Amino acid sequence: MTALLASIPSPHKGTVSIGPLTLHMYGVMLLLAILACLLLTAWRWRRLGGDTDLVLRVAVWGVAFGVLGARLYHDATSWDQVPHTWWGPFAVWKGGLGVWGGILFGSLAGAVVVKRSGQSVRLFMDAIAPGLLLAQAIGRWGNWWNQELYGKPTNLPWKLEIDAAHQTSISAQYRPITPGTGYYQPTFLYEFLYDLAGVGLMLFIGSRFRIRPPGLFALYVSFYTLGRFFEELLRIDPSHEFLGLRLNAWVSLVLFIASTSFFVWWQFIRPPAGDEPRRARPVPQGPTMAIPKGRVRS
Q: How far apart are CA 208 and CA 129, in angstroms?
């Protein structure tokens, strides 16, 4: 019992069978993450005077392009981890989604939808920022189901159990001397808790301080990349390195400097502009029938 309470067990497989149906839990976690982001963003956008329909349209296009961008980033930066089959580059159910590509492609697609609707892209960016971080927090549980992206070996009371079958991708120096279950840093849990704290912090800042859009989105990027940098120092999954640092650590560092600098300039140095949005633009209310009355056929 003491050993059980002093470690975090991992699932033996990443699927759950319900009768003839097999659920890939990595995908289930992604769906739950998307739903959580959608609900939180819809609530925030409505408080700004917007409508839920726009949030749904952004979700459809943002998720589609986000998954595409996340997989492209993974394939481009971790090509040696892609399964050597024709479907390998598309195998998102086996893990392998780069958050940087997902946020970039998803944000660009969402910005196009918001712009075409006549609403403020900057204001919507601030509305969705806490939801994105919440989605990233929930999505990390998919890594737990897949027994992937864990940290260095440890004997801490909250150490994560990883079985021998899921240690093959790491270097021999991090494997147990005796083949079997090893205990590692639960980086998925660290990021989950860190991201949840960030969601609360952004909701507090957004409600108590006057932030110029998209300042809150910039804070989201700064907060996440700060934690991700230190997380990368713990992780031991295969990664390309440059000057002794993992690739994603460099990406985090560059994005942190860029987003923090932007926030300071945008919030405190840049002169106020008269066109800065604080509320969503009113949605035009047209007639209930899209076809002119005289052209309707009985």
A: 16
